[in-house]
Amino acid sequence: MDQKTETGALSSKDQHSQLVGLHAQIEACSQCRLCETRTHAVPGEGVLNPQILFVGEAPGAQEDKLGRPFIGRSGRFLDGMIQGIGLRREETFITNVVKCRPPDNRDPRPDEVSACKAYLDRQIEWLAPRVVVTLGRFSMQRWFRGERITKIHGQAVEFGTGQIAVPLFHPAAALRNPQWRAAFAEDMQIVRRLLEKLAGSE
To answer: Rounded to a whole number, what is the largest CA-CA distance in the chain?
Structure first.
């Protein structure tokens, strides 16, 4: 049984234990076809109770090789943007909607997203982030179903669960398109101001 604090939240020790167990499940998962082609599942990494949870789409080749999220060119870009708002990667948590690399970096399929949904649900519940930043359209669709990233990027929305979600372009897309790269940087400053506002309201 989970050990609760006086506020009803999991203690840090139990949060860590829960996440370690969950990530072991993800690494051994065989619920969809992606288990047949992956090298490593990529559960995610970061701190407990992060200010920001970044949720991307799916691992790429480097991530699949090493089992870590956003460590290629897109990851270096994201790291720089995180530093640009006064944080370090290690102060956040980074994961993906789909935990295994789709072959040839194709788009995740609906059944693959569905197979990983419970894993992401539990990560969000146990990490209890202040702000969820979605990276790319597949991640965005979890919170902003039917919307277009080009229309709503940078718009913070609070949901009934108490989460504040901010949709951003995927770093890979920002690297390909100078206009989206500029928008990504501007949207990250929106995230910075949101965190400052939340800190001031405590």
So the answer is: 50
**Quick one: CATH architecture of 12-200?**
3-Layer(aba) Sandwich (3.40)
The single-letter DSSP state of residue 48 is S
Distance (Å, whole) CA 8 – CA 102: 38
pLDDT digits (tens, 9 = 90+) for 103-127: 999 999 999 999 999 999 999 999 9
Confirm whether pTM is higher than 0.90. Answer: yes
Spans of all domains in the chain = 12-200
d(CA 195, CA 175): 25
Chain CA centroid to CA 201, Å: 25
Query: What would the pLDDT profile of 16-66 be if each residue is shown by its tens digit?
Result: 899 999 999 999 999 999 999 999 999 999 999 999 999 999 999 999 999
For 135, what's the count of Cα atoms within 13 Å in the CB-facing half-sphere?
Answer: 31
Q: Long-range pairs for 122-126 at CB < 8 Å and ≥24 separation?
A: 122/18, 122/22, 123/19, 123/22, 123/44, 123/53, 123/93, 123/95, 124/53, 124/163, 126/10, 126/15, 126/18, 126/19, 126/22
